[in-house]
Amino acid sequence: MGRTVRVIAALGLAVLPGTTAHAAAQAARPPRAVAPALTAPAAPALRRSAWTGTWEAAPSGTAPALPGAAIRNVVHLSTGGNAVRVRLSNRLGTAPLRLGAVTVALRRAAGPDAAPGTLRTATFHGAPTITVAPGRDLLTDPVPLPVRAGADLLVTVHTPDDDGPATFHRQAMQTSYVARSGAGAAQDESGAAYTATTGSWYYVTGVDVRGSATGSVAAFGDSLTDGVGATTDADRRWPDRLAEHLRVRRVGVLNAGISGNRLLRDGTGPSGLSRLDADALDRAGVRVLVVFEGINDIINTPGPTATALTDAYRTLVARAHARGIPVVGVTLTPYRGHRLFDAAREALRQQVNTFIRTGGAFDAVADADAALRDPADPQRLLPGYDQGDHLHFNDTGLLAVADTVGRVLDHRFVGRAAGVRVLR
């Protein structure tokens, strides 16, 4: 099924893909012939004024609505620009969602206060409010607000009504703030009304920037990409560290990780196969896809066959190649010592890693397994990288993943134009 642009008739607003039907149709596509390794498709050229994704949180589930509240989501931008637009989602909701107000502002410091003079109201085809149908995402109008790479942006969403389950990203590894009476709080620079906190992001699933960015890298995965094990409020997930590595090149990095996510089965969030378009390929300015997912398929019951997983990787790659987007495959890291480790699952991990390294499906390979395993016991993480459960990484391990992926991007997908290093 081709990508369609749906329109809210009353306002003429473009609505982004992400419906269940769209995702299911994409997942049902048969595997296409994939480009062999070392022949990545040429990504289309981006003008410097094009929109580029600077931040993402893939919808992972729903939470009870907070009627009347204003939720001040704190998001960390990977690249800068002279204007922003925000992606808001009712993709997993079951009822129309009324947005009473949405504002953006630069954060003043480590809290809910906005930097003076930076708070802006986001609109929708010029209107300050909108109702979002269930199953849909939408973008705000452009908001003229200069932002720099590495800045924290406050995206405040006021929901006046109890509109049913709220689409959210559970595992933010970031503190955001809630004002219980939000009718006016969304417009306040002061954070005084934001007396409650949350460890999840509500409704906000992306931020794009317009200006000098040269494109973005989409990091697609599970809790290892989502950042479980990272220090909270420190922006040390491996996509954050990769963004630091690429910052001089003005490249954005989008974190499309969902803790607990699987490639083949819905569960914590839609399956990787069904959410690929909405959470990666449809995002603004994506030039390279990095796939680091599959360990949850292996360690959970029922487990897949090696063929089912390798076919899933081929399908992901074929769908990205159809968009002109090359794909980096990341090998699955060790987890001996974890409560779900056993010999059969480990044998499957080794089969999958052999395919990632040598199967020819991916345009390049980042060998995180080789980088993070303990040389004395290759089925285990190096202790200095282990968060403590023998599966997830600490800050040092997350940096090692970022370094491994960054070296591949530097070698394969980064060039030089007009004195500035950019994605080819």
Automatic annotation (TrEMBL):
Superkingdom assignment: Bacteria
Family matches, as SUPFAM superfamilies: SGNH hydrolase
Pfam families for this protein: Lipase_GDSL_2 (PF13472)
Boundaries of every SGNH hydrolase-type esterase domain copy: 219-397
Keywords on record: Signal
The UniProt record lists the keyword Kinase: no
Signal peptide stretch: 1-23
Protein's name in the database: SGNH hydrolase-type esterase domain-containing protein
Organism: Streptomyces collinus (strain DSM 40733 / Tue 365)
